[in-house]
Amino acid sequence: MNERESKEHEVIPQANQHKRVDIRMGASTMSVGEWVSSKVFSLVHRHNLVYNTCWEDPRLDRVALNIGPEDTILVITSAGCNALDYALLGPKHIYAVDMNPRQNALLELKMAGIRRLDFETFFKIFGEGRYRGIEELYRSSLRRELTPFARRYWDKHIKRFFGRKRSFYFRGTAGTFARVMNTYITKVARVRPWVEKILNSKTLDEQRE
Q1: Phi–psi pair at 72, nearest 5 degrees
Q2: Mean local confidence (pLDDT), 120-147
């Protein structure tokens, strides 16, 4: 191979070629993008109640996992919905864990409501997402069922989440996102009638129409 042919086979770096910039933290290395993402994730999950409801459908888990009385389940707490759904199947034990202790506080509040409230009151709080007189109800019926962290959290936040006009399901990080999307659908895209029609459909054929 002559000099000209050799040059034709050289790989020439491009001036605008993407370069990875790494940040070393102790023994580990991550890119700037990964570092920023981890900081944002930590900021959101360590300072806010993120999930007010679980978005997954636990009915699929029931089929896939075939949960029975001898099973022990480890589940990410999130809003606690899935853990409570699994409990209906009577497994031996459920461990609900979450890097955000506020999510565990929400699960504790729901469990306290299941133990202490009638269905109508429970549904107003966790179905409709609001209840007039929530502070009094919380202190008289729910607070004593909670662990110390959950007590401290709900002592400060119970009225803000459940005692005002806006539903609990429009609060927290996920609730704020839902509220923004709700506003966009209604006032910007103006497709509310079509969305409602899809949501009210009874069959897939109705949805396709």
Answers
A1: -115, 130
A2: 96
Q: Residue 164: pLDDT band by 50, 70, 90 thresholds?
A: confident
Which residues have a Cβ under 8 Å from the Cβ of 147 and sit 6 or more positions away?
A: 108
The count of domains in the chain is: 1
7 falls within a domain: no
Structure tokens given for 144: 């004593």
Measured between alpha carbons, how far is 84 from 114 in angstroms, rounded to an integer? 10
* Residue count of the chain: 209
**Rounded percentage of the chain residues whose pLDDT exceeds 70:** 81
Percent of the chain with pLDDT over 90: 60
pTM across the whole model = 0.76
Task: Give, as one character, the DSSP assignment of residue 73.
Answer: E
Has residue 25 been placed in a domain?
no
Residue 179 burial (C-beta neighbours within 10 Å; 0-12, 13-18, 19+): middle
Specify if 81 maps to a domain: yes
- Residue 67: give the domain boundaries: 58-166
